[in-house]
Amino acid sequence: MSCKIDFVNDWELRHQGAESRLYFGLHSNNRCVIKHRFSKKYRHQLLDKKLTKERTKRERKMIERIHSKSQELGPYMPKVIWSNEDTIIMTEITQCETLYDYIERESPSSTRVIDIAPLIGRCIAELHNIGIIHGDLTTANLILVPKTPKSPSTEGAAPSKRSKQDSMEESLIVIPIDFGLSTGSEHPEEKSVDLYVLERALLSTHFADSKFFNCILDAYMERLTCDQASKQKVLERFKEVRMRGRKQDYSDDMEA
Question: Protein kinase domain location, by residue (predicted)?
Answer without folding.
Answer: 8-256
